[in-house]
Amino acid sequence: MAQGVVADNWSLQDISSLFADGLEHDFAGQILLSGEGHYYAPISSAIIQTEALFDFIANLILRDEILVEEKFSYSWDQVSSPLLEAKNLGVVRPYPFLSEPGKIAGPRNKIVDHICTTESLRVAHRENVEGWKARKQPTDPLLSATLWGGAGMCARSYVYEKSYTPHPLRKRLFVNSGFMLPASDALHLVKEFLHDKRITVSKKVYGNDSLYSSYVNIPALPIRVIQDSSSPSQMITTALQMRDDFQPLRDWLKMFQNAMANEDTESLLKYRKQLDSVSEYIDRKIGYGARSQPVSMEAGMGIFKIATQGNPIESLKNQFGVRATLNKLVFGSFGASALKKYVHMFGERGSEVGLEIERAFTINA
After folding, report:
1. Do 31 and 128 form a contact (C-beta atoms < 8 A)?
2. Can you spell out the DSSP letters for 182-235?
3. I want to staple 76 with a disulfide (CB 3.0 to 4.6 A). Which of 13, 49, 322, 355 is the partner?
4. pLDDT (tens digit per residue) in 256-266
C-alpha cells in the first residue's frame, strides 16, 4: 500500500500564492472557542502560508504520494506554479474523491458533530447548510471553508484509509474543538519524536534560561530545504531532489504505517524499539546516560562526541540505516539561520512580517 496522505487544495493555493506574490501582509481569521460561543481571532496570513509550506515539504519528501480533491485543484494548478513539478512527477496527484459522494456524506456529518462543541458553532453551521441549499452560498464562507470543508477532507481520509494533513486554519479548529484525526499516522509519530528530541538537544546546548533559551520550531526537513535553496522558486525542486536521499526512511515509514493499519503488534513493537534505540543513543550522546551505563568521551571535543560504554551494539546500529538518518535530522541545524534566510529570500528581512514569522516559529526551549 502506498504511503499516501490527503491534503487540502486550500493549502496548495496558499503555497502557490506565496511563491507568486510573496508573504502576505494581511490577516486570516482563526476560529477560537469560548464557553458556548466561538469567535474569529486575527493571525498573520504569512504565518499560515509558511505553516502550509513546511507541512507540504515534509510530505513531499517522506510520502509516496499527496492526494488532493481533483474537483478543486484548479485553485493552484497554474502554469507558473512551482507545484506543477511535483504534480508532473506524480507525487501530487489530483484524485476524484467526489465521484463517490455517498461514501463521504455520512462520515463528514459525524465529524461535523464532533467539531461543533459549542452551541454557536452548531447554529452557524446550520445557517451555512440552509444558505447553501437555498442560494448555493453559505452565510459565513470562512466558517464553511474551515469547518464543512475540513470535515469533508477528514471524511475522505477516513473512507480511503489515508492520513490527512489539514490546512493550518482547519488544524487550529480541530485542536481547539478537541477533535482528533481518525487515522494513525507513522510520519506524524516520527515528526513528533524528532521534535521532542531536538528540543532535548537544544536544552543541552543552550540551557533552560526562560529569557534567553529559545528553540526554532521548524521541522528538520524544511530547514534542510531552505539551506539548500537560493530562492523560493527552488524550494520545491530541492525537496523533490531529496526524495532519493530519503527513500530508505520513506520505505521504513511505509512498513510502519502498514503495521499500524493491520494492528500488527509484533511489528509495531519492532519499529517502536528502533525509535527507542535512537532516543537512548541521543540522550547518551549529549551526556544523559543512565547511572548504570555511564557516558564516556570519545576521541574529540564537545558534547556530540559523547558515547555510551554500556551498549556498544546499539551505538553501532545508530551509525547506519534509518537510525542514522533520524540522528542526522535531530543533530542538524536548529533552524535559526534557516528561518532568517527564509524571511530574507522573500524580501522581508527587518520588516514587520519578517519579525512576525521569526517570533511565531520560535518557542522557549
Report:
1. no
2. SS--HHHHHHHHHHHHHHHHHHHHH---TTT-EEE---HHHHHHHHT-SSGGGH
3. 13
4. 999 998 999 99
